[in-house]
Amino acid sequence: MVEPAKKHILYTNNLGRNFGGLTALANIDLRIKQGTIMGLIGPNGAGKTTLFNVLTGHYPPSTGQIYFKSEEISNQKPYVITSKGIARTFQNIRLFNQMSVLDNVLIGRHCRTASGLIGALLRWPAIKQEEEQARKYALDMLSFVNLEEKKNEWAANLAYGEQRRLEIARALASDPDLLLLDEPAAGMNPQESVDLMTLISRIREEMKKTVLLIEHDMKVVMGISEWIAVLDYGQMIAEGEPHEIRHNKEVIRAYLGDTA
Amino acid sequence: MLSPYYIQLVILVGINTIMASSLNLIIGYTGQLSIGHAAFMSIGAYASALVTVHFNFPFIASLLFGALVATLFGLLIGAPTLKLKGDYLAIATLGFCEIVRIVFLNLDITGGSVGLRGIPKKTTLLTVVVAVLITIFVLNRIINSRIGRALIAIREDETAAESMGINTTYYKVICFGVGAFFGGLGGGLFAHFFRFIQPNSFGFMCSIEHLCMVVLGGMGSMWGAFIGATAITAIPELLRFLGDFADYRMVIYGAILVIMMRVRPQGIIGQRLSADQVSIGEKLFNRWAGMGTGGKRG
Question: Which value does ipTM take for this structure?
Fold first, then answer.
């Protein structure tokens, strides 16, 4: 186990989560190095999405603590954690379907803007300016994921791959330091997967974000991750560089069973 | 000039527009099924009527007072019930509406079941028109702002909204507060027009009528609330002119509602994405009826 250090943008100590008698996560000591792309893999039901939900505050942890930028965030609400700089996407795309593509991204900008009820009614210049800036930022995010032309479409009317990219743009709009992607390549064809890998690399290179991604597509996860953690039955059974993970006996057993 | 009958009809349409558009903010834009809007109307009506009768408040001040008292109760009902979703919230708001009615039935100051009489007639066509315009202006501004976007996001997907940084509880409280304010305003105008109010005018049926206006006109549309309010107020009146059939007017009225829901479930001018996708109303009702996918985890 690596001791937590300043270079870790997020780390957890002995993190666990139970649902009644079921232990979904136990003894997780996750370390995410600032500025890296980290992969999180494991068989179905291993607890990957549960870990995301605990990190983002959807489920409070049953044991242990989460530290983000050296500050404990263990029992914070999801919207507070987002404003501190963690944004996520969802495994089963959760867009705001009956809102325009641009409005979806503007929602991501919500926690970086402040106008209230009185501002909405009176719309003094500062309020208009804030809205204008938010709009510009959102458009930048849309062009980053190459969806600028679709800004006035309803989110529900986008193609599947576009919806995945829109979710990423929406998360990026909150200007997170850490981006959690839950199976971004799910349901994509090979070409789309390659494009997605390029996009994730650009998020790290051009936007200087740290990325943690859950992915089943091994070509994607091995291709772009610098570090990989493996979950099985709620435990972290291995971590290391991709080539180490590929030959790790524990990991092979978790995926293929004892006989392999 | 318009005859008093038509003026009364127009005033009623105006008051109902205020009621429907404020309920539309709660149901159509924020997706919270509240079926106790009449409670806010009755609180506004009694509060404003009482300060007019007992303290001689000027008309505008008493309307404002009624609306603010209703807002207070909107926040009170909002805070504890906002953890509830869909049909559970509906039952809670319905219960609140009944409690308010029964309290007014049993208080001495409100005249109990006899009702409150002798309220001076101050509501005119002009005041109603101005109130409608203010309501629509304010609601429009809210909907087309950062707050309105947050409210619509809550309707579309509450979990996603919260994980994108929206304090959903706070915005739902705001939504109930604003909805209750205009509900109370409508009540104040109602009291100062009919000069007589009784608790049973603001019962369950009254809430359901407001709901029908929102659904018939089209959820999540400002024009929809206006058209729904006009239709629901005017249709029973127009059917009076059917001569021998006038006895059946409530039956015909009911039939029109049923046919509307069958052929145009999104309301008269409600939004519908495309043929294979559902309208806001259908989606919300599916979710409320437990058939939707709203509860899935991410």
Answer: 0.93
